[in-house]
Every structure is written in C-alpha cells, then in structure tokens.
Amino acid sequence: MINHFARNESTMVQVSLFRPYGEETARWLVDFNNELDELASRHPLINASITGFGVNYLSLQMYTLSHFPYVVAFTGLIISLILFISYRSLVVALRSAITNLFCITIVYGTVTLIYSEVGVAWMVPIITFSILIGLNMDYDVFLVTGILSARSSGLSNRAAIVAGLENNGTVIGVAGLIMAAAFSGLLFSHTVANQQLGLVILIGITFDTVFLQTMLVPSLMAQLGELNWWPSRFPDAGVDSLDDAGAPEESDSARMFAGPRSDDAEAGGAVGGGVEGGSRRGTPPQRDALAVTL
C-alpha cells in the first residue's frame, strides 16, 4: 500500500510492507537505500530517506553485527590479560583463548546446522557469546587452579594434571549440570529465538564439561609439559611419574610374602647368629631358618 502526501516543498511516500522484519524485506530495504544514495548523488537538491520500524530495526541489526567482531576481539584480549596476570603464564592465556574459541565455533556451527532451514536469529550470538565465554572461563579457571596448586606442591606436570582433574572435576560437572538445567526451560518456548538461545547454552555447557575441560584441555597441558607455565618456572618435581605418585603403600602381608627387605637383612643376620648357636645345642637349623623368614 502506497500513500502520497504532497505539499509545496516536500513529498512523503508511505510504503506499508507485509513483513517488515523478514529477510526479503531487509534485502529490499538495502537495495532501495542504495538507489536513494545514487539518486542523491545525481540530484544534490533532492533529499530522500527511508523511515519506519522496519528500517530502524534493520539499522540496529546492521550496526550491531558490524561492531560485534570488535566486541569479540576486546573480550578475548581482556580475558587473556587477566589470565596472564593471575597465573603469570602466557601459554595458559593463549591456550585458554584458543580452546574457548574452538568451543564457541563448535556450538554455533551445530545450532546453525540444526536450524539450517529457518536460520538462526541474529540476536542469539550477540546474547549468548558473553554467557558462553563466562561459563567456559569459570570451568577453565577451576581446572587450571587445581593443576597449578598440585604442581606447586611438588608433583610433576602429568601427576598435577591428574590431581587437579580429580579434585575439581566433580565441581565442574555439577556446576555445568546446574547451568544446563537452568537454561533448558527455554527449549519449550513457542518462540524460535528463545529455543535457539537455550539450545546454544545447553550445547555449550555440555561440550565444555564433557569434552573440553575433561579431555582436550588436560591432553594439551600434558603434551605441553613444563611449557604450560612459561615464562614462569617451577623447581624440579619431587614426583617424576604417575606410577610414583599413585603407588600404594606396601602392606604387611605383601612384605611377608616378598621376603625380607634390605633393612631387615641385618636383623635377620643377627637372629641367624643366634639360631646358629642354637643349632650347636641341638636345635634344628632348618626350622629356625623358616621361622626367621616368616
């Protein structure tokens, strides 16, 4: 529907579109705006513009999406700086940024594949990006803090990773389960955008707690070794291997069947001397030797 309003100095044309927020309308508005720019360049005395809710909504969308990469870069830079100051390790900061970017890429790619027919609402990445970054960094800090504490206590790098994952793995899992349950209600919404928002957070938390923090991050830290804490340095580890860290204490029965240890040999020799003396007095030496061994 087109209405004309003419006066002496200006003319306003009102165009009512059926779907002012649809994708087809957005393309039309962009093309028509380009046509108006060309018209203004050819006729400088003509000042033509587009207005309405659809135009304002499209302008907000284009402005927000055009500045979103700056938000991503600034957030990554600030988080990496905070991690570097906290752990005094450049490798921890860079590794955390890379693994979090990998997690977010997997999440958005999965949601885009699921909603390939209808498309993902443009507000979903804007809203969920900060939420995913915050949750991923919380779980990463829990894990790295536990590993750093174990490494500072004298364990080797691999033993510290096992200890940190053992001590904080339950906390990470329970925290992720609570957050997933809190946002899962959005999946039952009648609005597609709300469903997508809940699905993004649910997939992100599940991927982070099940795979990223329990498998990928410990594996990368195990491969990096002492390079994890560069440029910081730790003294030589008191425990060099997982076998030494996890070897159980020898029980009394194991020592009995394994035979006497080196420190028991001297005592056995002393007792053996007494036994030898007893054998001269008629005591059977074999029976006494068996008694000493047991």
From the alpha carbons, calculate the radius of gyration and give it in angstroms.
35 Å
- Large-scale geometry: elongated
Number of H/I helices: 10
Could you report the average pLDDT, rounded to the nearest whole number? 77
Spatial strand order of the main sheet: 1-2
Q: Could you spell the SSE succession in H and E letters?
A: EEHHHHHHHHHH
Could you tell me the strand content as a percent range? under 5%
Distance between the amino and carboxyl termini: 105 Å
Low-confidence stretches: 245-294
Helix percentage: over 70%
The helix/strand class is mainly alpha
Let me know the number of strands. Answer: 2
Largest sheet: 2 strands, antiparallel
In words, what does this structure look like?
The protein has 294 residues and is mainly α. The chain is built from ten helices and two strands; from the N terminus they run E-E-H-H-H-H-H-H-H-H-H-H. It has helices spanning 23-42, 53-87, 90-114, 123-152, 157-183, 192-224, 242-246, 252-258, 262-280, 285-293; strands at residues 2-6, 11-15. Strands 1-2 form a two-stranded antiparallel sheet. A hairpin with a 4-residue loop joins strand 1 and strand 2 (11-15). The longest helix has 35 residues, at 53-87. Residues 245-294 have low confidence and may be disordered.
